[in-house]
Amino acid sequence: MNRGPIAEIDLSALQHNLSILRNITSEKPVIAVVKADAYGHGAVPVAQRLQDAGVAMLAVAFTGEARKLREGGIRVPILVLFDRGDMEDYFAFDLTPVIHDRRTALRLSNEAVSRGCRLPVHLKIDTGMGRVGLSADQAVSDVLSIVELPGVEIAGLMSHFSEADLADRSYAEKQIGIFQKIRQELSGRIGKAVICHMANSAASLSLPLEGFDAVRPGLLLYGYSPLETQCGLRPLMKLSTKVLAIRNLAAGSPVGYGRTFVTKKPSIIAVVPIGYADGFSRYFSNNGVMLVRGVRVPVVGRVCMDLTMIDVTGVDGAAEGDEVVVLGQQCGETISAAELAGRAGTIPYEILTSLGNMAKKEYIN
Known about the structure:
Elements: E1 6-10, H1 11-24, E2 31-33, H2 35-40, H3 43-52, E3 57-60, H4 63-71, E4 78-80, H5 88-92, E5 96-99, H6 102-115, E6 119-126, E7 134-135, H7 139-147, E8 152-158, H8 170-186, E9 195-199, H9 201-206, E10 214-215, E11 237-242, E12 245-249, E13 254-255, E14 261-262, E15 267-272, E16 289-292, E17 295-300, E18 308-311, E19 323-330, E20 333-335, H10 337-344, H11 348-358, E21 360-364
Parallel strand pairs: 1-21, 2-3, 3-4, 4-5, 5-6, 6-7, 6-8, 8-9, 9-10
Antiparallel strand pairs: 1-11, 11-19, 12-15, 13-14, 15-18, 16-17, 16-19, 17-18, 19-20
C-alpha cells in the first residue's frame, strides 16, 4: 500500500479564493505565494491554476522551488524571497531575486555584467520584522547606491508585516508608515516606476492598500483566513486515510506507547496508517480528532511514527477499510486546519505544510 494519507486538492476552491481576494482588494495585481510546495498543496498544479487565472507573479522561498516550477511549465514571473546562494539559477530560469543587502546586489551586478544582461530585482526593506532586509534607517541611501550598479534593474520595493493578523493593528500601521516614507523619499530617484508590495493575507483583508501596487497573499489562497472572519474562503485540502485494523479491547486495556491511555470500558479501537512521519503531530496524542462515518472520534494514546489509534466505540459498524478524514469534510462534519492548529498549539500554516508534505496528492478541477 502507499504511505497512509491521501490529500485531495480542490483547484476550483483556489480559483474561488482568488476571486474573493480580487473583490476585496479592488483587483490589485496578485503576487501569489507558492513556497513550501504551495503550503503543502503541490506547487506545480497550484501554480498552473494561478498562472491560468492571470496572477502577476509567483513567490517562492528558494531557487530550487522556482526551478521545479519552470521545469513544470510555469512561465509567469517568479520572485525568489530569500535565496543568496548560487547565482546561476536566476539567469538560467529567468527568476527575480529579492535583495536584502548591498553585498548580494553587488554579486548579482557583477554576474549580470559578465553575462551582458540586466537582471530585474526587488529590494526588501526591514520595517520592523527584524529578520532580513535593508535597515529602514539606511534604506534610502542603500537603495540609491544599488540603483547605480550596472546589470541590475530595480523592479520592486517590498517589506513584510510582523503582526498584521492582530486585532491591534497599530504596529502594522507603523510599519506601513515607515515603508511609505521611504517610498516617498525615493520617488523619482530610482528610474522607472517600481512595484511596491507588502500586504500578506491578513493585511490584504484588513489594512488600507492605497499605497501599494500589488498584494502578496499566501494562506488565504489555500482557504484559510489569518483573521477571525473567513470571508467565504474554501479550503483546498481534504486529507484522508483508511482504517488499517480494528481492535476490540476490554476495560482496563492500555493503548500505545507509554500506556498514556487506558480504556475505561470495553472499547473498539481503530488503527489508522498516519503518524508524525506524515505530519500528524505528537501533540495530537490523546488530544486530536478524526472523522469516521461522519462521527468525530478521539485520538487515543500517543501518535506513533506511522500509526495513530482512534476510539470508534460510538461509530455504528466501523470496519477495516473505512475512510478516516483527518482534515476536511465527511457527511456534513468538518475538521479544519484552524481547529487542528488550536489543538496542537500552532498555526494553520504549519498544519497544512506538515500534512501535505508526505501525502499522495489527487487533484480535483
